[in-house]
Amino acid sequence: MTIIVGYTPSEQAQAALDQGLRLARLSGENVVVVNAGPGGENRHASQLRDKDKVALQEKLQAASDVESEYRELLRGKSTVEEFVTLCAELDPSYVVIGNRKRSGFGRFMMGSVTDELLRALEHPVLCVKPSASPRPEHLPTVADPDVELAPETQLEQREQLEDLGEQPER
């Protein structure tokens, strides 16, 4: 299986990449790091510049225990459309994205790619905050205070814990 990591030149995306690599080490999966957006003349701050690409490649090479690749998807589609297409192609076990704190009003006025991805993707989405420092010895669960799992993943994990006779933390 594959873990897809959304990547932009940001602190949030760096946290997502770190978590994606941790998950890949634990699960033995490969990582596909994706920078997606309209591209072309619609250059956006989320697109990687050459120096960002070099730094990312160095980080992926340093994680030699994880098979990884970088894909830049700048074909005129929105970020969400690119992720939906890629998820249909790769059928990932997780999609890991960075998340920054924004008020409900801010999300309403400005929109949020994170919110759109959570609604559009049918795969588990792990949203990681830059300050998150989950312990590398375990996969994230509903009981982890430092990671946000998509509501569908939370519900699935709670049901699994209840089936095992354990009481999930809320």
UniProtKB/TrEMBL annotation:
<feature type="compositionally biased region" description="Basic and acidic residues">
    <location>
        <begin position="155"/>
        <end position="170"/>
    </location>
</feature>
<feature type="domain" description="UspA">
    <location>
        <begin position="2"/>
        <end position="129"/>
    </location>
</feature>
<dbReference type="InterPro" id="IPR014729">
    <property type="entry name" value="Rossmann-like_a/b/a_fold"/>
</dbReference>
<dbReference type="InterPro" id="IPR006016">
    <property type="entry name" value="UspA"/>
</dbReference>
<dbReference type="Pfam" id="PF00582">
    <property type="entry name" value="Usp"/>
</dbReference>
<protein>
    <submittedName>
        <fullName>Universal stress protein</fullName>
    </submittedName>
</protein>
<feature type="region of interest" description="Disordered">
    <location>
        <begin position="130"/>
        <end position="170"/>
    </location>
</feature>
<comment type="similarity">
    <text>Belongs to the universal stress protein A family.</text>
</comment>
